[in-house]
């Protein structure tokens, strides 16, 4: 037998009933969602920063980190909307290694997906209760979105998922911004095909149901760099890259043209300290070009309390156990730089 059906998980509605969203938080999320939507439709000229650890791994450190962000948000709220990056699923190309909080709510213990769902929902609600922030996560598994659909305000589809039909169709039924990353090959046409599918309505099979969707008009692009056939990183955040994507976007005639630029991953060659320099270049080019000013809606930044990364089990508080991140002081520097350009 190829599959061992270990345990039937509760339905999304059952998990939502276990950890319901309090009315005050639901009202704040509705307010956040409206403000974020206006950025993507062009009604607001605020800039979005999706910022946080490569992967969420420790509740105490994440609550500390988001509370620090709250203090910064208050200072830059006239120009910037901060959306904490609370990524609870970690894509693994080979399937090996830490797969995120969903699989392992405790990185040093065995996988427990039920406890993972509960831990994530508790964490999301705690962050919202403490800070009032909107929350961003990656949709690694489309069928899991419903567990958190009443909490999340931003969703990303990763470079390895963007070609997947189910991710595209699920995005078409989501009513918040969904960023579709360019694939690791860097082929922009694949990303644009994904956006086209996401912005249209569809009928398809989802969680055992025959469903219909109406399309997501604020599905958009995320540029994260690429890797060529020799394993070399090829950035795509430069002026020429952004203008080229803008031209392709306009030619396609998509609703609400928008791109968020990932300052890490293949854009930085995973040299996390380069994120500050890359942010400066993007903001300079955005200020130089009227087209880019309206097109580049935000940045995606990997940041935590401590610089760099550590191995699971080392136990350094607030330090990434996956990809290296900017530490807190450098994070503040980057936010202030972005603010200065706006």
Kindly describe this structure.
With 342 residues, the chain is α/β, with parallel strands linked by helices. It has one domain: Aldolase class I (TIM Barrel). It has 10 helices and 12 strands. The protein has helices at 12-18, 23-41, 59-76, 113-131, 165-171, 188-198, 239-252, 275-288, 290-295, 328-341; strands at residues 47-52, 80-84, 136-138, 154-157, 178-181, 203-206, 209-212, 219-223, 226-227, 233-234, 259-262, 296-302. The strands form 3 sheets. The protein has an 8-stranded parallel β-sheet with strand order 2-1-12-11-8-5-4-3, with helices on both faces. A two-stranded antiparallel ribbon has the order 6-7. α3 (59-76) packs parallel to α4. The longest helix has 19 residues, at 23-41. The radius of gyration is 19 Å and the shape is globular. The N and C termini lie far apart (58 Å).
Short description, anyone?
The protein has 342 residues and is α/β, with parallel strands linked by helices.
Number of strands: 12
Unreliable segments (pLDDT under 50, ≥5 consecutive)? Answer: none
Mean of residue pLDDT values:
95
- CATH-level-4 superfamily name: Aldolase class I
- Classified by CATH, the class is Alpha Beta
| Number of continuous helical runs | 10
**Spatial strand order of the main sheet:** 2-1-12-11-8-5-4-3
CATH architecture: Alpha-Beta Barrel
What is the H/E string?
A: HHEHEHEEHEHEEEEEHEHHEH
The amount of helix comes to 25-40%
CATH topology: TIM Barrel
Shape descriptor reads globular
Major β-sheet profile: 8 strands, parallel
The number of domains: 1
